[in-house]
Amino acid sequence: MSGIGRAEIAGLIPHQGPMSLLDRVLQWDATHLDAGATSHRREDHPLRSNGQLRAVHLCEYGAQAAALHGGLVARAAGAVAAPGYLVALRDVSLARDRVDDLEGELQIHAELLLEDRSSWQYLFTAAHAGTPLATGRLAIIRRK
After folding, report:
1. What's the domain range around 80?
2. Residue 17: CB partners within 8 Å, gap ≥ 6?
3. Which of 24, 34, 78, 108 is the most exposed place for a label (fewest CB within 10 A)?
4. The CATH number of the domain where 102 resides is what?
5. Rounded distance between C-alpha atoms, residue 133 and residue 143, angstroms
6. How do the pLDDT tens digits run along the chain, 144 residues long?
């Protein structure tokens, strides 16, 4: 499924205002989500420091893609996604130091690896023009 923009995204994830980093969903299914984002170019990006957005912040893009995936899957099942906390990042690999100087859209991919009653694990990739910039795994625990 696709055709999901910023307004609909805002209703599915806890990240709001400038901290909502994803612009659109390109496609998604029960285990995958592909999203697009141009927020890395914004001068008012909340994660910028010294005028730059570091590539390590692509982990947040991956986490938001995971949250959005959870929200879409829950909504498709007639429910609301359980809130969660990002508790771990593993095997993070970065291909460059910064990303604010990249023209155009970032592609963010999230893949659900494992889900149980208390947590989710996702693999994420952030790319630009088909070139991977960041990859890693993230763990989210359900908030009680």
Report:
1. 4-142
2. none
3. 78
4. 3.10.129.10
5. 30
6. 557 999 999 999 988 999 999 999 999 999 999 999 999 999 999 999 999 999 999 999 999 999 999 999 999 999 999 889 999 999 999 999 999 999 999 999 999 999 998 999 999 999 999 999 999 999 999 987
